[in-house]
Amino acid sequence: MVRQKPTALRRLSAASCLALACVVATPVLAQTQAPAGRGETSEAGATFPAAFFAQYNPVTAADMVARVPGFELRDGDDRRGFAATAGNLLVNGERPSSKTAPSELLKRIPAGSVLRIELLSGSNAAIDIRGQSQVVNVVVNQAARADAGTTFVAGLRHIQYSNRIGWALQASRTVSLGPKAVLALDIQAPNTLGRGVVRERLSSGTGVHTGSRYQVSQAENRSLQGSAGLRWRPTPADSVNLNLQYVPVWNGSESVQLETAANGALRSSLAGTIEYQNNYSAEFGGDWEHRFGQTLTVKLIGLVSRTSVDQLDSFDIFTAPASQTLRTQDRSTLTGERIGRVQVKWNASDAHTVEFGGEGAFNFRDTSLDIINQPQGGPPVRVPLAVANARVEELRGEVYATDIWALTPKLSVETGANFEVSRITQTGDQSKERSFSYLKPHLTATYEVDPRTTVRLILQRDVAQLDFAEFSSAVDFLNTSTIQGNPDLVPERAWKSRLELERRFDRKAALTLAVFADWVEDVHDLVVVGGLDAYGNIGAGTRAGVEARATIPLAQVGLPNAELRVSGLYQQTRVTDPITRERRSFSIPLERQGTPTGSATLNAGNKDWAYLVNFRQNLPDISAAWGATLFQWAGREEYRKAEIIAYVREKPRLDLFFETTAIKPVTVRLFVNNILVASEARTRTFFQTDRASGVVQRVEDRTSLGGPEGSRTVGFVVSGRF
Fold it and tell me: Which of 101, 124, 81 has its CA nearest to residue 399?
């Protein structure tokens, strides 16, 4: 018996909703007129002065960027080095010399220090766009930044089922160190508490009920993040930036699981804890830029980072009628990265810029894993596991050159190429050394049909970086899952193409439509190594789809001071399954799934569809605002050797908020998240021998409630500056 899911209907619904949103949005946007005094739209994009954002009561630059019409902040890919991790954020025309996510960096810039935000589209000879279709440039007044005072955010929240209160604290301050230097300090102390409840129905391959499983887990995640940033102008021709961040983490969880037969008799139980000890991440980076006159600049960038994670799992396992075992898993992981980069930029003219440079990096990941079973009254027994201990090192170098040229007042083109070489060495339970080299050309062409309409074409060769965690084995006791390490992984590569049409109707109204197609080699997926599931490569595949974003003022439909933001994605991935030889979607392991969030961003990863709707209305008569966020995404599947794991959330997530500035000088925000309690269902279908047999052995249907993503959350946040 093979279960079929109504995915076609869900895909059709998502595509229909996306098309309907575009049809509805277009006439409303077309009626919108540009209000006076709201900034300018130019060939380079749009400029939003600080006054534009006053209606949103921003505390940090993150609050301001989130309200830029028609823009979606992207944190960039989580890859080693600087070359491939660029997001779409600039600060004073420069990319931050840190690998901290742009969304996090923006929280450390007080709103009072921001002069304006520039939305730049396509290739721009004066600004480092670096292949992005859009970037925002946050222009900060250095003198104002020193006088911006201290900003703070403090909040409490209660997560359904947890019966405890969580909190979040943040404080940022800028300090003037004289006329040439400014020091920015930030400290955060989040505490996330959650309690998850899982119920599973166990059945045979023919659908006969064979048992049940019940699990309760309670987690507490605490951390303390401290960071400092120094901006120093020792001479008119030199700029120095230094960044330091240290994040200790204290996480842990307790779990109890019971399994019963169909008649209610106890089959087994599991109870224990997962503790994370000696966990921290640290990063120190900086850059120095020297300007040789008006046309030539040289920039040096360096970064050192280190992360430590020690995990100890300890579970008492009872198996009827009288077997008792203590099972422990002791895992230690240490990772580090060192990067050096040089960039040379020559502004040949106002319309022509050439940039070239190089980057070198050393990365490592050292992992050890010990699993021990100790029967009651017996000696401890070590469980053998292939590739349990591994050290992976990578030495990588890259050179690049980019040419940005405004060929005509309407047409600009960015062309370039990166050439990368690397050597990866693995030692431990298995030893291997491999070398790679890749040429990565790219082209971005931008044509301005008129001052408000832009067409962009992006073509590039992309090479993904290998995840060192997948070189060593991992075990999950609670989900009875083992993933074996695979030293033979190779990077996924793709030729990517994207065509965008952007229309800006006024300062607050914008519409972007995009189509994309990717041709992928060595698709990253799940394979079989030594009879066990492992991450690997399964051949060639394709990815194609459409994407839309719109910012829609609603005054034309009778809602003054209100706006709607809509983002939608529909895509299809196809690859040949290595076991069944049938065409299917890419497998999406949990660690690699994209997830829409309650912010203004949409990240669906390889999921078939996703949508995100944000509504906000300002109520100036009572110094308040209210709004809602609605989002949902397609289910995902993991295709293992003898198992298909399917995840789906049938309901969308709905969040509501109300905020007021009536209590001066702070903003108070009340919120209720996940009102519909959009829980996730999981179905594990096990096959005899492997999936090619088509014969279902058993099925486990799970419903999950609780945790930050599966519970209704109520809370408040107070923010302001002094």
Answer: 81
